[in-house]
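[step 3/7] inverse_fold.run input=structure_tokens len=233
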């Protein structure tokens, strides 16, 4: 990976903001991802994110922390929080912004245990493919203290496969409809394509049960998205 995301975050943090990130997928056209949004404070966050932060308790792991928005709010509210990301640039930005405990690492390399694990901004994306969800969930389960919780959000994107009459057009022999190829570019430079997973709640709940986890929906968002809480059975 070229860490284009991290480069963009560093540009904004260092006062060199001139362009936004461009994102697209194999089923959607190019769209701008404004850099200021990636530095939002609590008042600018979607209600799902605000609710997740409100539910946080104990020692917290912020997975895919990005610019550190969630970790900073938790820190300011006296939480013991650790922020991790596999983007070197994102971790540099977190440190510059004052996140006190942050580390460059992937989720599967984490070994500490926590009371709350946050996976926000389509947290299921990190799972990449439906076949890998159970692998990640088993690992997340191993990172939970007794009575610990995972707070995760995602979206049911089946609506993107509907025509104007509401009829879904999906090849039943193709991959799960939430498995997307995700593309990113910044200042004319393209990132290596990534696999990204949007997971509907029913499927997430089903996979959780297969690995000994309970999954409850906390709330629905404004556009086919939801926040879920996962905990040990």
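[step 3/7] decode complete -> sequence:
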């Amino acid at each position: 990976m070229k860490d284009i995301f991290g480069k963009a975050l560093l540009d904004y943090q260092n006062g060199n903001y001139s362009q936004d990130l461009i994102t697209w997928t194999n089923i959607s056209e190019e769209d701008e991802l404004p850099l200021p949004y990636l530095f939002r404070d609590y008042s600018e966050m979607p209600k799902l994110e605000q609710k997740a932060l409100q539910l946080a308790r104990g020692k917290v792991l912020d997975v895919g922390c990005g610019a550190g928005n969630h970790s900073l709010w938790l820190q300011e509210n006296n939480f013991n929080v650790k922020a991790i990301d596999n983007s070197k640039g994102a971790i540099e930005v977190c440190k510059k912004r004052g996140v006190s405990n942050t580390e460059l690492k992937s989720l599967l390399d984490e070994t500490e245990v926590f009371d709350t694990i946050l996976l926000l901004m389509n947290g299921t994306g990190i799972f990449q493919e439906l076949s890998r969800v159970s692998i990640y969930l088993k690992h997340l389960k191993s990172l939970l203290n007794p009575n610990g919780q995972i707070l995760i959000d995602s979206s049911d994107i089946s609506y993107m496969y509907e025509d104007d009459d509401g009829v879904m057009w999906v090849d039943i022999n193709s991959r799960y409809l939430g498995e997307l190829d995700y593309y990113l570019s910044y200042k004319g430079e393209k990132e290596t394509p990534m696999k990204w997973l949007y997971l509907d709640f029913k499927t997430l709940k089903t996979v959780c049960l297969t690995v000994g986890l309970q999954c409850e929906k906390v709330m629905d968002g404004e556009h086919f998205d939801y926040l879920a809480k996962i905990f040990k059975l």
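[step 4/7] annotate
The first strand starts at residue 21 and ends at 25.
DSSP finds six helices and twelve strands in the chain.
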